[in-house]
Amino acid sequence: MAGKRRHPAIGIDLGTTYSCIGVWQNDRVEIIANDQGNRTTPSYVAFTGSRRLIGDAAKNQAEMNPSNTIFDLSMVTGLKYAQVQGLYNVLVFDLGGGTFDVSVLDTEDGVFQVLATAGAAHLGGEDFDNRMVNHFVQEFKRKTKKDISGNPRALRRLRTACERAKRTLSSTLEATIEIDCLYEDINFYSTITRARFEELNMDLFRKCIDIVEECLSDAKMDVGSVHDVVLVGGSSRIPKVQQFLQELFNGKKLFKSINPDEAVAYGATVQAAIMSGEDEIEDFLMNDATPLSLGLATDGGVMTVLIPKNATIPTRKEVVLSTDSDNQPCIRIQVYEGEGAMARDNNLLGEFEFSIPPAPKGVPQITITFHIDADCILDVAAEDKTTGEKMRKTITKRFRLKH
């Protein structure tokens, strides 16, 4: 089967801060280096006159050209798991540059079943950088009586130095900040210890662990039942984060066999190869789950759930609705996601109106069907059981993470 395939299987991680690409060849995943030889590329694009810069080149000039440099784009990856074999229960801890995701899976005979997911749409390495930047902005103000908080170029240079220091602190106990002419020809020199960095971000680190515990609870699993904890995302290298995780899992050794920066691209490449029909891995199957409940706004604004949180994908559910007034000309179908009892407390994904012929209230029988396919695309259909009229709408708005 592999010999008949015309195109290579490629997996792409379009990350908030860094991107990575893998290709399936020679019966394994190979990460593709960029033209600088780096296996990850900054998620930056810049415009300078007639030139367009991408990746490292764009990031390297961001300090001088902040207004024409685009970065920090939140992307949703197609598949967030690292390929692990021979395990039963796996927790994937994905702490990236801009988002945090946790998934609990079980695997048996090559079938991966997502039991629960949880996460935070705005929690990651950039938040840790922000704490350090604010720390040094205040220090610079104390030392020089100058406030750089309104100067984009100075902040970008300081942020770059803080990101570098954060990475350094994952392997050493102290990092140095040195920036020539940071603001008004004033040089800035300082240091920060790992302990101080941890103190600045302790509440965020603990929030990560709270979300892990929530995910385990949703999966109805205790820490002793997890066979492996897989680290994904560059921020999972932070020692304090790893310490908290190991303490939660009673000293369990964390799974680090796959580079955290490359794990998403690795998993996406494996999934691409599966979809392409590669013989070597066609026995693997990945069953995803819904991160939040999906439902409709019904009488009184109540959230009527059709597909519950953590339902296995693909899935199909239906409900029969009717009218609440005589000769009602249409039914408004509003699709929400979330756990709130009232629809207004949840996230509106889409809406449409379905026309019906005049009839006394309660007589029309309208079947509403939710269908989520293997690609997590939600299709909503309405059918009048009396007339046979149908209407279908595909919800293109992405599922949202909690918190």
TrEMBL record:
InterPro entries with a match to the protein in the record: ATPase_NBD, Heat_shock_70_CS, HSP70_peptide-bd_sf, Hsp_70_fam
Domain of life: Eukaryota
Nucleus among keywords: no
GO terms for MF: ATP binding; ATP-dependent protein folding chaperone
Alphabetical keyword list: ATP-binding, Nucleotide-binding, Stress response
Family (UniProt): Belongs to the heat shock protein 70 family.
Protein name: Heat shock cognate protein
